[in-house]
Amino acid sequence: HDVSEAHDNVTGEFEIENRSITGHAKPSHLVHPGSEDLFVHFFDERLTGVQARHMLSFLQDGGWIDDKTDELQMDLVTYNSELDLFAQMSIFFDWQTSGSIKWDYALNTLHLSPYVGSFGKFRLGLEIIVLCMYCINVSMELYDVITTVASGNALDYFLDPFNILDWTHFTWIGLTIGYWSRYYQLTQRMQVKSAYNILQEPSSTMRPFLTNPGEELEFLIFLDDIKELSATLKFYTVNAGISSVLFVFRQLKGLDFQERMGLVTRTIGAAASELWHFFVLFGLVFVGYSCVGTILFGHQNEMMSTIERSSVTLIILLLNFDTTKFYAGFMHASEVYAVHLYVWSFVLILFFILLNIFLAILVDAYAEVKNATNDAAGLATELYNVVKH
User: Could you tell me the pTM of the whole model?
Assistant: First the structure.
């Protein structure tokens, strides 16, 4: 509104026909893409505690935050100069129809200079070694594919579980390298200012949220870049973790050359058929209990509100029978006899019967493999013989 309106109108109200349409809108090139329909307010680093509380009261008194609010998101970016570490945090508040406010948060940390310093150079060296080993490993496996196809045994190669494991691992390593390359490219193109003075007058009591459009746009772009970096780094760490697990499985395959060291893979191979049928049976029973749990307790207990949450809760119940986590909620959500029938039948069938059958299958297969390798030399003996000769 024009300042003159406030002086001329003693009631403090603005007539519709007196509202200024031009003169207060941002230039279109300074509007952040994606934020056109959002009510964005800023608390920049120059504010004191008193000023920040005044601005929060301004939002509440002005009706920006009230019982009709649907959703509120707070974004915060900090920087630790000693560790050269950025932290990006988002806090979400969701007003429920029941009157409560659910909240959640997402926190990510990231380096913009991963190869700076002695540790960074050491990391770069290790990454180059890993990349070279990866290329050599893929080349060797491609050679195996070519020779196998040339010999007419392509189907046997591609149906071998260990070969499937190899190529799955190669794929995940490739994704990991791709995400890290993307992350490094993003860090190199980022432009970071020492300060973003978004508010025009932080000490203003009348228009505390008035912003400098240029500074506002620069900060929102910076925030978008930080969020994209955080998402890329998260995908990188997830793929790196999966790659590491697959690498462990491949090591078990690699140790199969030695009879004693290959006990694990040979035991699983000997029990594969029985394990397949067991997991089908276990899955049917487990999904059935998840559905029943959702029906019995889902209307009151959040942990059982969906089949997915029920499944997670039952897995925790199976591994850690902690009654403080579920018993009171179950008792209030259904009849006492239904709770006892559900819980104790679940424990009896899945824990005492099915899990013990699972162990029996593995023990039986292990005993069979162990008997077949009793006369085999151990790894230490074979190493000694190699060194001796």
Answer: 0.74
